[in-house]
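INFO  loader      accepted 1 record
INFO  loader      residues=490
INFO  predictor   begin
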Amino acid sequence: MSILIVVNNPRDWPLHIPGVEVVPARAYLSDSNYSVDRSAKVFNLCKSYRYQSVGYYVSLLAAARGHKPLPNVNTIEDLKSQNIIRLLAEDLDDTIQRALTPLSSAEFTLSIYFGQNPQGRYETLSRQLFNLFEAPALRAQFVRDHEWRLKNVRPIAASEIPPEDHDFVVAAATNYFSGQKRRVRKRTVPRYALAILHTPSEPRGASDAKALQRFEKAAEAVGLDVEIITKDDIGRLAEFDALLIRDTTAVNHYTYRFARRAAAEGLVVIDDPDSILKCTNKVYLAELLLRHGVPAPKTLVVHRDNIDQIATTLGLPCVVKQPDSSFSHGVVKIENLQDLEPTVIQLLEKSELVVAQEFLPTEFDWRVGICDRRALYVCKYFMVRRHWQIIKRDDSGQIGGEGSVQTLSVGETPEEVIRTALKAADLIGDGLYGVDIKQIGRRCCVIEVNDNPNIDAGYEDAVLRDGLYREIMGIFLRRIVEHKQAKHER
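INFO  predictor   done
INFO  writer      dumping tokens
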């Protein structure tokens, strides 16, 4: 791999780093020799990344040449928007407070070179900002109101690096480039790279440790390089060809930001951002199923002006759900008229709309796991003993019990259950979904379609075992190849 540092004028980069070529920006844009070197990696330190400037075109053409530039055009656009900077940096708040609280000043500026900072006291913050906004040199400004917040972050040109930082920049760059070379040697063409997003510190991940190991093993078996990444690695997504999310998803959450960023970078993504948006909102699902005639419990979308219609429309008891409820959290069973109005009003304090449904008592819920519009696995999720849900929570919201799980083959499952599940999932997309169905006699009702369904060792994989993971990895490989071919044909 050849490493190119691109600057407006080589005199702007008076530093010598072994094995690195310093290239004038206009030469990189116009010299055909640079376009034929497929193994090059470009580090763009031009003076401006303004739209259609020389610096902008360096990153744009580097991406077209397969040179994986830092920064890439998506990062350049992100850094132009204060709203996007604020959105992407939301998850850094705890890190910012820990790092900067000891300071007595009201303002602080942090210089970051290849993910490191000269002061040496802010390694974690520097690395996380670099992972969010991958550019060779960054300058972040923080201000203190009641607490510290990130005011701005911007890329800096080679000419803006002060002389006293030069030795540190050489060391940081050398360290970074040596790491790049080690990673590149691990990959051999035509292998592709898959990232699996899993943050161990997050509660209720979508797969346990053993299942993640089986995902890794299956990925390697089909020829994919695989790496487990965490929520701190959003800036690294351009290194990969595909992303599998195994953290529990939500819209106002880092998982959605990962899906959006990965899709924008051209990665194959499961769960894709569109599926997350659709599946995590019960109001949307209720309207979608009704519109397309998919059988579901009798449902009413509730607002403050139609609370009185719940009992007459659905009867009691009924179930009321927050739009983004999950794992039985935010789902309430209402037994009588006395509790109805105060309970619903309390839920409406968090959302303008909630979903009310008729109560359908069953011994278990069917869960049909679907990927690429095919049913892969089926489970019976049994209710907790003497409870109406598969998960029982105490008054504080903590889990107090979970029902048992029985796994079946698709062939053992009633055809109507599979048919209904596929019809519901097809309305969302071709990703990985878990469709929950209640069966009362011959009637099948879709309770919800979940993106990012749980796949845990010994449960969802109990029938297919390693075959379940190979099926999903095979889907990834096929989509990556198809995506690369389509891109090449364009």
